[in-house]
């Protein structure tokens, strides 16, 4: 697969998603299949926002609220499964992030990002199709956006960005189910905020589709320039392409380069590491600086090239993209993914092996690239 478009003819459904003919949810079977959810019953919540009780009680109420909504019932089976799976796992990491202060106040900061990573691994183990998996992960990550978008410094920018990653109508439906699955004094006010979110997204043509920019370069400029106008048709002054590889060690980045672009020069951090005698577990600053020096030479001569490294977290990619774009480069990210057991096997076959513990740590930290980062994103996933 080489993009994040969901196959509308996909036969995939989540096995525990209730059918339209029988909306009953089999909680016993779900807990038997996903024991990680059992911990949620021991996780209390702030009663101001969740007077219904612990996280597991809330999760059940959210799922039941979702399947009762006419909009959800009118969806096709695959879309219903996507939303139901997101509802089931939307708070899966809350018990890991919850803290109780001395005054009894309960908070769960960062549970959303942690939960998104956990959901990705759960769905990988279920062999969920890549695009469907990432749609569910995105819903888990952005589910609260309809509740808080107007409080953000740039509300329009927040919904336009979200629309590049997931359908905002799905976020609104998920948020509505979340609110209906809780007991709080301001429930009606929050539901009105969600309706405002729906209207705002519709007004800006990004409710049930991605916001459409004048060009891919206009999109790139919008997400890399403060206070940019989304309607601005940016002049494309790029004059070379840089391919930024992304993926865990052992996913086959060298093989992909050899098969697809054997003619392009490659800045390989692995090769530099070998040449400079630096281990993967050592400080990597010297390696990165040496790579950037080579890259600047290609950029100054307007020579297209490939930057070959793991690039698994967004801050690292962002720094490189700023450097490349500053020289007028068009950015293409190529993300590779294979099952973890094959990653470990292929890593063992490499000359420059990475310790297994490091690979698992990288997997836990992995932040998949998205279209807000680059001009072109190609995802090649081998299941």
Give the structure's gist in a few sentences.
The chain has 383 residues and is an alpha/beta fold. It contains 18 helices and seven strands.
Can you describe this structure?
The protein is of the alpha/beta class. The protein has a five-stranded parallel beta sheet with strand order 4-5-3-6-7, with helices on both faces. The model has no long low-confidence stretch (mean pLDDT 93). It has 18 helices and seven strands. It folds into two domains: 27-203, Hypothetical protein af1432, CATH 1.10.3210; 240-381, Rossmann fold (3-Layer(aba) Sandwich), CATH 3.40.50.300.
Largest sheet: 5 strands, parallel
- DSSP strand tally: 7
Q: Please trace the helix and strand order, writing H or E for each element.
A: HHHHHEEHHHHHHHEHEHHEHEHHE
| Beta-strand content bin | 5-15%
For the biggest β-sheet, the strand order reads: 4-5-3-6-7
Indicate the radius of gyration in whole angstroms. 22 Å
N- to C-terminal separation? 10 Å
The CATH architecture designation of the largest domain is Orthogonal Bundle
Unreliable segments of 5+ consecutive residues: none
Number of domains: 2
Mean pLDDT: 93
- CATH top level of the largest domain? Mainly Alpha
Assign a percent range to the helix content: 40-55%
- Derived from helix and strand composition plus strand pairing, the structural class reads alpha/beta
CATH topology of the largest domain: Hypothetical protein af1432
**Could you say which overall geometry the principal axes of the C-alpha atoms support?**
globular
Count of individual helical segments? 18
Oligomeric state of the chains?
single chain
């Amino acid at each position: 697969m080489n993009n994040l478009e969901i196959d509308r003819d996909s036969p995939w459904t989540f096995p525990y998603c209730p059918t339209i003919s029988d909306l009953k949810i089999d909680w016993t079977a779900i807990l038997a299949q996903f024991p990680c959810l059992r911990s949620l019953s021991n996780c209390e919540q702030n009663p101001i926002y969740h007077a219904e009780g612990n996280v597991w009680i809330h999760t059940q109420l959210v799922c039941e609220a979702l399947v009762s909504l006419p909009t959800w019932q009118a969806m096709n089976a695959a879309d219903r499964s996507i939303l139901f799976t997101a509802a089931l796992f939307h708070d899966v990491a809350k018990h890991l992030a919850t803290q109780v202060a001395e005054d009894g106040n309960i908070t769960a900061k960062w549970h959303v990002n942690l939960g998104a990573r956990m959901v990705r691994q759960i769905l990988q183990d279920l062999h969920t199709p890549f695009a469907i998996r990432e749609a569910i992960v995105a819903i888990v990550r952005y589910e609260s956006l309809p509740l808080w978008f107007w409080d953000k410094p740039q509300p329009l920018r927040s919904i336009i960005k979200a629309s590049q990653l997931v359908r905002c109508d799905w976020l609104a439906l998920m948020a509505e189910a979340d609110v209906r699955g809780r007991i709080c004094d301001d429930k009606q006010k929050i539901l009105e905020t969600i309706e405002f979110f729906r209207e705002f997204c519709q007004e800006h043509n990004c409710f049930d589709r991605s916001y459409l920019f004048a060009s891919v370069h206009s999109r790139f400029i919008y997400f890399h320039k403060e206070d940019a106008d989304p309607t601005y048709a940016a002049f494309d002054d790029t004059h070379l392409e840089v391919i930024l590889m992304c993926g865990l060690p052992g996913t086959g980045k060298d093989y992909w380069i050899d098969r697809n672009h054997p003619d392009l020069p490659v800045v390989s951090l692995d090769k530099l590491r070998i040449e400079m005698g630096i281990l993967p577990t050592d400080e990597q600053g010297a390696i990165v600086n040496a790579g950037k020096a080579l890259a600047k030479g290609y950029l100054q001569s307007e020579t297209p090239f490939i930057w070959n490294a793991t690039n698994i977290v967004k801050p690292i990619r962002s720094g490189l993209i700023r450097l490349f774009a500053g020289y007028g480069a068009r950015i293409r990210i190529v993300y590779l993914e294979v099952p973890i057991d094959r990653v470990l096997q292929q890593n063992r076959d490499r000359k420059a092996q990475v310790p297994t513990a490091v690979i698992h740590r990288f997997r836990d930290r992995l932040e998949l690239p998205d279209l807000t980062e680059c001009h072109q994103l190609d995802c090649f996933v081998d299941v």
